[in-house]
């Protein structure tokens, strides 16, 4: 009786779900080795992605490439290596990639529609790098936002505003929209409109503005500064002032001239800065 129980037990062990103990052990070893190799491949792949992306960035930096191109290529190389690593890992653990690729192909239309915005942003990033409407460190206005470009990534561009806010704009809408680049040209024109009261001396007002403009050493004399009668407003006679400066001197000149006009007009007899007012005339019945 004991012998029959022992034989039955051995039979159960050797025929567990139709597999022998040796086959089960071999399978566990094989799966364990594949999983271990998959983990090693994943770790090595992630490190290679980091290494090669840095290497590409260093090569481009040595060639004095555009900063936007460096950022874009670094992200692209890293992304491609990571994708290849994931495919290799899946293959290592036994997933048939031919079936997986066929499944992706069958669902390609749905995936394309779902990621149409992402693909548009990728294409926009490529177009930005090809046609270069702006570079890193340029000050631009786009999509209703203004700031200094810090990075041009694969799918988006990072900007920082003058008050230190970070703005992220998708590359697709950015490239397809209007872009104003304030750093593209070496010179910028600084425009003003200053008013003086009706009945006051026009030549005195004009000469005062010219002396203020010419007192700033960074105001360019070629093109020559312009001070002309711009308009006759409701409460003031308005002089249009246009001066040229290097782009880096724009705000220095802007603030200086505004401050000096306010100071000088308050010191000179016969000149004033008028404020909106209304004259009411009453007729006697």
Summarize the structure in words.
With 285 residues, this protein is an alpha+beta fold. It has three domains: 12-106, Helix Hairpins (Orthogonal Bundle); 132-181, SH3 type barrels; 187-267, Alpha-Beta Plaits, CATH 3.30.70.100. 53% of the residues lie in helices and 18% in strands. It is built from nine helices and eight strands. A five-stranded antiparallel β-sheet has the order 4-3-2-1-5. β3 (156-160) and β4 form a beta hairpin. The chain is elongated, with a radius of gyration of 36 Å. The N and C termini lie far apart (137 Å). The mean pLDDT is 83.
Overall outline: elongated
Query: How do the SSEs run, as a string of H and E?
Result: HHHHHHEEEEHEEHEEH
What does the average pLDDT come to? 83
What is the topology, as strand order, of the major beta sheet?
A: 4-3-2-1-5
Based on the coordinates given, report the CATH architecture of the largest domain. Answer: Orthogonal Bundle
Major sheet description: 5 strands, antiparallel
First-last Cα distance: 137 Å
Question: Using DSSP, what is the number of strands?
Answer: 8
Oligomer: single chain
Q: Which value, in Å, is the CA radius of gyration? A: 36 Å
Number of helices: 9
Low-confidence segments, ≥5 residues, pLDDT <50? none
Count of structural domains: 3
Share of residues in helices: 40-55%
């Amino acid at each position: 009786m004991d012998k029959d129980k022992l034989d039955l037990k051995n039979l159960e062990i050797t025929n567990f779900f139709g597999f022998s103990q040796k086959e089960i052990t071999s399978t566990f070893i094989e799966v364990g080795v594949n999983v271990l190799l998959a983990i090693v491949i994943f770790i090595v792949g992630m490190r290679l992605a980091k290494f090669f992306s840095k290497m590409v960035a260093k090569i481009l930096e040595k060639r004095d490439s555009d900063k936007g191109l460096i950022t874009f290529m670094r992200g692209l190389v890293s992304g491609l290596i990571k994708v290849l690593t994931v495919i290799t890992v899946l293959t290592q653990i036994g997933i048939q990639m031919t079936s997986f690729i066929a499944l992706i192909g069958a669902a390609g239309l749905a995936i394309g529609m779902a990621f149409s915005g992402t693909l548009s942003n990728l294409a926009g990033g490529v177009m930005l790098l090809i046609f270069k409407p702006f570079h890193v460190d340029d000050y631009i206005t786009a999509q209703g936002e203004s700031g200094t470009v810090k990075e041009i990534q694969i799918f988006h561009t990072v900007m920082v505003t003058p008050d230190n806010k970070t703005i992220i704009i998708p590359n697709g809408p950015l490239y397809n929209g209007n872009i104003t680049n304030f750093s593209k040209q070496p010179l910028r024109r600084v425009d003003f409109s200053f008013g003086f009261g009706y009945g006051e001396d026009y030549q005195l007002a004009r000469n005062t503005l010219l002396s203020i403009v010419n007192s700033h050493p960074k105001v360019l004399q070629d093109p020559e500064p312009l001070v002309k009668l711009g308009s006759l407003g409701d409460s003031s006679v308005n002089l249009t002032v246009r001066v040229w400066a290097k782009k880096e001197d724009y705000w220095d000149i802007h603030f200086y001239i505004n401050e000096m006009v306010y100071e000088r007009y308050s010191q000179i007899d016969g000149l004033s800065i008028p404020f909106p007012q209304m004259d009411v005339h009453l007729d006697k019945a």
